[in-house]
Automatic annotation (TrEMBL):
Presence of keyword DNA damage: no
Segments of this protein annotated with the region Disordered: 20-42
This protein's name: PROP1-like PPR domain-containing protein
Domain PROP1-like PPR per the UniProt entry, residue ranges: 412-574
NCBIfam families: PPR
Organism encoding this protein: Carya illinoinensis
């Protein structure tokens, strides 16, 4: 939202709360300075907030999140209805969301009917007619069947967050909360936080101040609902919202909500000081910044340690050099309560190139008998924050400071420095640190080892895999299956199949079970080398070792079939093995049929009822690519037009293949149109090169310059 819109929003807020608020005095015994609390009267914060929202004309009748009289306008479904039709309708709507479609998508784009979609994706019993005791019993009965689902009870939090986000974006926050009720799940803190995040994102991306006000209203309603359910308003909930207000420079709104949060939870006062400091820094109010600094530096007998810590943290994160140095002349940072706050101070020293101050406080912490592990953490925080310092110099400073202070690096800081090197793809430096770490008797974690392996892959230094494996063996590390999979994959990429098979044998010696992914890496390497016989021997070896092929295995096999009989054979075989048919399988079928000249059968793959709606457009793009690559440009263009008419867009890879395979003169206009549809700079540059080649071939250089 532009700053002008933020000012207008602030003006609307001001007029809304002007008559509903009065000056408030701090409660007796409250050591809070007046500039850390709002001057607005929130003796009834809820009432004041609702007055503000109602005056802004965004207030609607308040439906409780758990009220049976509430409505679901986005779903066009009465929440009070317990009829089977109502339940089925809600099931179909949610099922459609989880399949990746929009609520108004056409049946043609769904790829499967609602009944099949519901059965496959949302096999969850409905609890609307059960008592709470029955619900508990019913949940236990179905928990095992739902264990592998990514709906509601999945152990993977990010998957559940995606579900909440999808529902919130397509249904709205209130409807989403009632959907959870209908599904027999109470709205918890994770759900609330996800919905609050959605409202904030909508407010930030909108250029309409009325929409921003409405989203602010919804956030407040969510906070209220959390309190009604007995949840504390923690930083994970209020923090992003206050940062939004700070980013927009909405000072009065910030104070209004800070006072509401303080009334609800008085323990938040110190942490709110952190956000207040960020606010004044954000709006460049130097007077307020000095006022806060003077207050926390004043020794008047009050316990201000937590408040001081938070304000110092805000100054450090904002790199306010002058104020930071002034406070450090007064404040003894060796007495700060949290080591991570101190680490942020040292990060600021690094960014501001204050090495003399860093050394001074390193010595101070050493003198006051601070734990060696914390000192090592402070050193790491400082050296990695110094700008324009190459990895080699960062490592050198890290070692020099430890030697000067006679402090040994901890395993944690060693691993953090190793990860820092890996992030810069300085794998040799990372491996040197691994050797050094192991020599002093420290143990490297698997996570750090995997970061080294991933950096090795990303830097294409595949030959380093042998050095890494030697370190693992020499120092008695305990790799897991993922460790071996990555190493085998690197061996296969550099065509060291002997080394890959040797690692498979070593894997068995330490009682680890080979996985399909390990064999797939070797198979892919052989296929890249055009050695089909050796690739098929990998499949044979998998069966001998009692390793079940997976969807990736059959994707490789089908992709490299050169006759229809082999395609059918492997497809039937994977079904016999009970292998899940993924989008890669469908893509492989399309490419294999196209390679064999069976273009109609390639097209028929799209009619498979098992294709998930969310993958349909991607699979169609593969078909466009396959048709264009094999000379079927007319069919490819027809499918391209069909995709556009359905309101979808072709994948960038498919667009580039279309551009590349135009082999007739007079198509420059269409090529330029395809070029405009490419997404991402890398794809666009690649597409430009192909258009230039076309222009050179057909002598259209003057037209190209004009366009």
């Amino acid at each position: 939202m532009p700053r002008s819109k933020a000012k207008k929003l602030s003006s609307l807020f001001s007029s809304a709360v002007k008559t509903a608020t009065t000056k408030a005095s701090s409660p007796a015994g409250d050591a809070t300075p007046k500039h850390f609390v709002s001057s607005l009267d929130t003796s009834s914060p809820t009432a004041s907030a609702f007055k503000f929202l109602k005056r802004c004309s965004v207030m609607s009748p308040k439906p409780s999140a758990l009220s049976k009289k509430s409505t679901l306008p986005s779903l066009k479904l009465d929440a009070a209805s317990d009829s089977e039709d109502s339940t089925k309708q809600l099931s179909e709507e949610i099922s459609h969301i989880l399949c990746g479609g929009a609520l108004d998508s056409s049946a043609d784009l769904q790829g499967t009917d609602d009944e099949h979609s519901l059965k496959k994706v949302l096999e969850i019993p409905w609890f609307s007619k059960l008592s709470h005791h029955d619900i508990s019993v019913q949940r236990k009965d179905v928990s095992r069947a739902r264990k592998q689902k990514w709906i509601y009870k999945s152990s993977h939090g990010n998957r559940f967050n995606r579900l909440v986000t999808m529902c919130g974006q397509k249904l709205g926050t209130e409807a989403t909360m009632q959907v959870f009720v209908k599904l027999g799940r109470e709205t918890g803190i994770k759900e609330y936080n996800a919905l609050i995040r959605i409202c904030i994102e909508k407010a930030m991306t909108s250029n309409d101040e009325d929409i921003a006000l409405e989203q602010t209203h919804k956030v407040f309603r969510l906070f209220e609902s959390m309190r009604e359910q007995g949840f504390q308003i923690e930083e994970a909930a209020y923090g992003p919202f206050l940062m939004y207000l700070i980013q927009m420079g909405l000072v009065q709104e910030f104070h209004f909500f800070c006072e509401v949060f303080r009334k609800w939870n008085p323990r938040l006062i110190s942490r709110l000081g952190y956000y207040e400091m960020l606010l004044w820094i954000g709006v460049n109010n130097e007077e307020k910044i000095r006022e806060i600094c003077n207050y926390i530096a004043l020794d008047d007998g009050e316990d201000k340690s937590n408040l001081r810590d938070n304000c110092l943290l805000a100054l450090c994160e904002s790199d306010r050099k002058t104020e930071l140095l002034q406070l450090l002349e007064i404040v003894d940072i060796t007495k700060l309560s949290r080591p991570d706050y101190v680490a942020n101070i040292f990060k600021s020293f690094g960014r501001l190139l204050l090495e003399s101050f860093a050394e001074k406080f390193f010595v101070a912490f050493k003198t006051c008998d601070c734990e060696a592990e914390n000192i090592s953490k402070f050193i790491f925080s400082y050296v990695v924050s110094i700008p324009n310092l190459v990895v080699e110099d960062v490592v050198s400073k890290f070692k020099n400071f430890h030697a000067k202070l006679e402090v040994a690096p901890s395993s944690t800081t060693y691993e953090e420095l190793i990860t820092y090197c890996c992030d810069s793809l300085e794998v040799h430096a990372a491996l040197d640190l691994v050797d050094e770490m192991c020599e002093v008797g420290l143990t490297l974690s698997l996570e750090a080892l995997h970061s080294v392996l991933h950096a090795t892959e990303a830097s294409f230094d595949f030959n380093l895999v042998h050095r890494i494996y030697s370190v693992i063996c020499h120092h008695g590390m305990k790799p897991n299956n993922e460790t071996f999979r990555i190493m085998i994959n690197m061996c296969a990429k550099m065509k060291d199949f002997k080394g890959a098979y040797s690692m498979l044998e070593d894997l068995k010696k330490i009682n680890l079970t080979p996985t399909a992914g390990m064999y797939n890496a070797i198979m892919a390497g052989y296929f890249q080398k055009k050695n089909t016989y050796a690739a098929l021997m990998v499949l044979k070896q998998m069966k001998l070792d009692d390793v079940k092929p997976d969807s990736q295995t059959y994707s490789y096999l089908i992709s490299h079939c050169d006759c229809e009989e082999d395609i059918i054979k492997y497809y039937e075989e994977l079904k016999c093995f009970g292998v899940v048919i993924t989008k890669q399988i469908f893509m492989s079928l399309i490419n294999a049929y196209a390679t064999c000249g069976q273009f109609e059968k390639a097209k028929q793959v799209l009619s498979d009822k098992g294709i998930p709606v969310k993958n349909l457009n991607e699979i169609k793009s593969v078909l466009v690519s396959a048709l264009a690559s094999h000379g079927q440009m007319s069919d490819a263009l027809d499918l391209y037009e069909e995709i556009k008419q359905a309101g979808c867009s072709l994948e960038s890879k498919a667009l580039k293949i279309l551009i590349e395979h135009f082999q007739s003169d007079g198509e420059l206009g269409r090529l330029l149109q395809l070029l405009k549809e490419l997404k991402g700079l890398e794809h666009w540059v690649d597409g430009c090169c192909r258009v230039i080649l076309y222009c050179v071939q057909y002598k259209h250089l003057s037209n190209l310059r004009m366009n």
